[in-house]
Amino acid sequence: MVRVVETLRNVYQIDLEPGGFSNLVSVYAINTGKGIIVFEGGAAVSGNDLKNTLRGLPGTVTHAFITHVHIDHYGGTGALLELNPNIEVYVHPRGSKVLPNPDIVWAPAREALGWLGEIYGKPFEIPSRNARETKDGDRITIGDVTVEIVHTPGHASHHQSFIVEPWKILIVGDAAGIYVKDLDYIIPTTMEPLRFDMYVDSIKKLIAKNPSYIAYTHHLLVPNAVDLLNRHLRQLDVWAKATEEVVRERLGVKELEGILVERDQDLKRVYDRLRSMKAHYHLFSMAVDGLYKYFLDLETKRK
Question: pLDDT tens across 18-37, in order?
Fold first, then answer.
């Protein structure tokens, strides 16, 4: 089942529900007046659902913008070539080589994501001729819509975000967490491989853009974008300090999770409910583990 909501005029959120998990992975489609542009591609398992859903919108799909080449964000994009073999796919230069050769990311993704990676499936190939490498600050105008490219490394070296005008929507990918609306909680996207310093700097860079809305791939479009970004920064400060302390005291990642529950007051409020959400708790555990390994590596390098 796929759920489509017109969240703003001509802006559609498509909840793809991979593996039957709702509120997990969304793609955004915008009618530019000169065709449809798509942000993110979801996982390969949802490729046909995405393609068939877009057939029901007015206009031809002309462009796709992907935040990074992790399998839940771009894996289904190749299915869109059946709608338009000349679709232009905007990708960070560090990620472009993956498009025609998804084997580069498939094996590591399966190992990192485990059972969830198996559900997502191996990404579709996208020919190099369809790829358009971006530069930070690029502005691409398509019909009535302008997309500003903002390179936002940290979660991945090849991560980019997008500011979409005239609405000032921030398409954030994994640059600033996973927003679980039912819990009003943000799960940090601090999975391996992580550059925490870049992750924080990228959030500050996005705050400076002053977006009005934030569209999370995981999983919806909400207002008060700057408030949510600032809230996430405060949360990261708590998480980082707790993790540094745990590493110094030579405790493990399980102890870290318990300490985070005590110190992140929002997490303490929702922890039991979060544990009951299989896919979201799996991602939360990966985030805790990624942050722990980042600070453990820093500590090791200091010695």
Answer: 999 999 999 999 999 999 99
Model pLDDT for residues 74-132, shown as the tens digit of each residue: 999 999 999 999 999 999 999 999 999 999 999 999 999 999 999 999 999 999 999 99
d(CA 155, CA 176): 9
- Candidate CATH numbers 2.30.30.240, 3.60.15.10, 3.40.50.2300, 3.20.20.80; the one for domain 3-223: 3.60.15.10
Tell me which amino acid residue 18 is.
P
Which amino acid is residue 41, in one-letter code? Answer: G
Do residues 93 and 187 lie in contact, with contact meaning Cβ atoms separated by under 8 Å? Answer: no
Q: At what angle do helices 196-208 and 278-302 cross, to 10 degrees?
A: 120
153: cis peptide before it, omega within 30°?
no
Q: What is the pLDDT of residues 266-283, one digit of tens each?
A: 999 999 999 999 999 999
Q: Say how far apart CA 246 and CA 253 lie, in whole Å.
A: 8
Which residue ranges make up each domain of the chain?
A: 3-223
Cβ contact 246:240 at 8 Å? no
Calculate mean pLDDT across residues 177-189.
Answer: 97
What are the backbone dihedrals phi and psi of residue 287, each rounded to the nearest 5 degrees, phi first?
A: -65, -45
- What mean pLDDT do residues 281-302 have? 94
Task: In whole angstroms, give the CA distance from residue 131 to residue 129.
Answer: 6
- Token match 């080589």: residue? 97
